[in-house]
Amino acid sequence: MLKNRIRINLLILLVILTSILTGCSKKVDPKNLDFLGNETGKVPIEYANLFEITEYDSGYALLSIDKIEQTVLIVPEDKEIPKDCPKELMVVEKPLDKIYVVSTGAMDFFVKADALDKVKFASLNEEDWYIDEAKEALKDGSISYAGKYSMPDYELLRDKECDLILENSMITHTPEVLNELKNLDFPVIVEVASYEDEPLGRMEWIKLIGYLTDQEDKAKEAFEKQKEKVLSIKAASDDNKPTAIIFSITSAGTVSVRKSDDYMVKMLELAGAKNGLFKVEEGTGSTTIQQEAFYDEAINADYLIYNSSIEGEIDSIESLEEKFPLIKNTKAYKEGHITCLKGNTYQSVMSTGDLIFDLSRMFQGEPDLEYLYWL
After folding, report:
1. Which helix (H) or strand (E) element contains residue 110?
2. Where are the beta strands (DSSP E) in 269-349?
3. Residue 314 in contact with residue 375, Cβ under 8 Å?
């Protein structure tokens, strides 16, 4: 029953995303793509499963994004849009230097790929960024605030000739916005990096940003640096691995936990721990359970990690006790093994390798951590 509900929810998401992207881009009949010529290869991808870039001898490339069945024609700077290009195929023309980054989790890709100068619009104001480079760009005016995903500043984007809008799946909540962007002829790419079930796969989306902005070498370099950090961790044997749970308390008092295949659970595993939740939904993303149900599993976990990305940071163990009184009876509480993720972790996608390394240090009892703090 639980698995069926998960499949139904995923199917609904796919249907919504695919339907609102119809007209902007959708799966195209290969018979209508003869103008591409012969395939010459694909951009090397190691861990990401949800995007693919295929190159052709004509100089064009096709970006395919899974989950939403989005196909995008990437036109190089020295080429024009083919006359026989299907109308249903979205087209992105290089060079791209007036990008509107709606997906806040994607901004770090531009920073680490040394492509922030290609971004001219953002969906957060200066004070809402944890990324210093983005904050400074909003402050000095090199990036302008263009509204959040549900209320973009259409006039600003049109007047300043925005050449690409990078959304995430939040756009499913406002299909009328996507339809208006389509009517105004803005090319839209929906990134779904957060649906990758591997942390390294999520970070590897930087290669897409590198490809779009002609910063492939910088993007690869940034990814390899984080990959090496993760692979350098020497985990204990299965019998000696601690159990850990990432959670947060919602405003309604329920407990938000990560599903069994979520990238944050994989982060714990890469850091040398085992997921302490055994009765949680399969799939990616988060789910909520009642405090009593959470307590039944959390009571024996070696480490409890509070996720501040949604509900905000916890300033003390007393504050957490107020939200979740039962925590005082857990093993982690009694042994002083409760930490809080700092609020910047969601935006700092390309620091995920550093965070995993930090988690491994936490499991070794290190007092000074970079991305977490002890409560």
Report:
1. helix 107-112
2. 274-275, 286-289, 303-306, 338-341
3. yes
